[in-house]
UniProtKB/TrEMBL annotation:
InterPro entries: AB_hydrolase_fold. Keywords: Membrane, Transmembrane, Transmembrane helix. SUPFAM superfamilies: alpha/beta-Hydrolases. The keyword Membrane applies. It comes from the Bacteria. Residues 755-785 are annotated as: Disordered. This is Integral membrane protein. The chain crosses the membrane at residues 89-106, 118-140, 185-202, 248-269, 281-302, 322-340, 355-380, 392-414, 434-457, 504-524, 544-567.
Amino acid sequence: MPDSERRPATAGTALELLVHGVGGTTPQEMLNDPRTVRITGDDTAAVFRRADDVEAEKEAAKRLDQAPGKPVPEAYVWCNLTSGNGSRALWLLLLPFMVVNLAHWMRPTVRDNRKRTVRLYGLLVRLAGLTLTVLLVAAACEVALDLAAWQCAGTGGCAQEHSWLGFLSPAGPDAGWWSLPGRRLALAALVPAALTVLLWYLSHRTWSAYESQPPIDYGAESDDETGRAGLGRPGFWYGRRLVARLRAAHTAAGLLTIVAAVGTSAARYDREPGGPPVLEALGRIVEASLVVGGVVVVWVVCRRGRSEHRLDRHLDAALVRWLPIGSLVLLALTLLYAGWSRTQWVSGGQLPGGAAIFGGIALVQCLLVIVLGVVAHLLYRAHPDPRTAMRGLAGPAVAMLACALGGVMSGGVAQRVADWLDGTGGTIEGPPVLLTWQASVIPPLLIVLLALVGWLARRTVQLRRIETAAVELDYEDEPADTGRTRRIARMRAMAALTDRAPRIIGITSIVTLLLGTLALVGAMTTDETPGEAAHGTYAVVEGAAEAAQALGSWLIGVGFILFVTWGRRAYKDPSARRTIGILWDVGTFWPRAAHPFAPPCYAERAVPDLTWRMATWTSATEGRRLVLSGHSQGSVLAAAAAWQLKPSVRKRVALLTYGSPLERLYGRWFPAHFGPDALSGLHREVDCWRNLHRATDPIGGPMRLPGDCGPQVDREALKDPLAYGRTKDHPLPAPILGHSDYQADPAFAEEREKLLARLRPEVPGPREDSGPEESQESRLEPTPM
């Protein structure tokens, strides 16, 4: 900008706020200094400085007449929010809850006239999340009540093989007060009840640590300027009210599921001829109370969504307190009712009502996913974007996978427990046939996944051939090295496979829906296990059905072991987190809008931390400058924090992102919050923004902003490796960096210096003959360096 159009300004201290990415690191590594000091924060997340920079502001104030020096680096370390003790890997067992919560945020971009459709989309996802809670508790009831207390304890042969069930068996020598079927069910109900209470406790404890972190409240300015669409809404990262409501509703739903398993079985027996009228009346009261409680739970889930346009500090105290307590009281009364003496009641076969519960859950989930797909298609059609993953159907596809995960895990666990209790004796009937069908679809689903892996391998070979020619062209002045060229081409080809994820997810979800429908129809029409239903058909069909049924439960057991093992390694091993941790960090980035028992959202702590730090730094002294530097997932946190700043502060912030998944991952899968409109708006609102990426990076990529915004933000892909062969600057072979160590590239320091130069001592002023819009556009033009 010409000097005549500038106005002088005081040069303040410059701050570079570094935010690390997936896997985390130490402040010593981020600041490249073994001596660091924590200046604010706690053991969970904190901001660090080098020991020599603790008093940097005071020293800068003493030399105001001197030229501005280098920026003061600060490191925001947030890795303890998502890693730490290996026991936290048990959160992975709640993966279906996290996945269905992701579906809430995957809705397509919409306009303001689609508010009702957006609310319907969120409502359908919340209902799908509620069915997953009911399914989890129902699976626990199936294992504890049906398989253990009802079938095995009620069968002499099975109870003899498991001595710990002897006091519950009516045929054993230890038969006593607990041997009556109702009392066995009442005692076994403590297992799913304990599970429900544990989920409530974990959600409440993490709720206090994450959702209770208040963001900055700008008062009236929040409503006028920052209360806009997207992640800039004042209440976006403060979801206490909704999480509290959902936690109360889901806790009540879990307890009511236990009431249904215990109470309806006793009420069904009491309605038989010859039963006491009092018990029959009590049974009808229990069933009526169960219906009323279910209606209230569904009403609470449907009644209210997220409150993002304002900082909602109000909690529905009566609802949050009395809904779980009322359900707990009803459960206690139901257990007393079931434990009433019924000497003629004998347990036989499967627990009544189990097949109807699991069949109803599966049917409702299929219908919810189909309707959700229709709603998502309508939203996408109103504002189509070719970069949106799966043409706006990513949310329904992910919701389908969440329901499938819940069904497969429930069916596999129930089948494994039944095999363990029964052995090879055939003394119990086992779980409802639907769960056996659901476990049996795992082998064919794995075959499809293996076929997709084969397709990816073939595609990788094709891409490697294409990239080989590109690498040879990029390094045409270098002596040819076939092995080196192949390694670089292979890295580029592997990195490009990330863009094939929508096709993989889409095919998997479609196959899962078809197999789930087949399992539901097969169980309802035959009322037999797959092996029994295929008996008498073609030998190939019969053999395949028996093999799938035998392998299904075993694959679930192996999958559980591998799942927890990998999760534990990912929490404790930084190298493992960099490879598989990105998916977990994406899943736990979003607030719990659809399921309160999902793993906690670390961004509800990290984003307010960064916002507070940037706001307090820029407001302390006139002229202070700030470069927000984010790598990988840290760039997403940086962008989210920048959106939360008030406009006057955003204009004093420069953004530097590298290895960023903002567009490649978040923009495609979460277009409503990271789509082209949102990213273009962020580019206009911050002072300046530069993005670095590599062709060998499987996670980061360009921002792809439309028009002139693209070159203003994206630098052309960095060369990786920095040197093809041995040179004076690189006498040893340079590594292929991929997603890591962007600071090693000279382009990083160059772009950072340009951002600082733009912010330093001269600030563009408005032209006398221009309006507000023109002066804002002139501010966004790049400053000559």
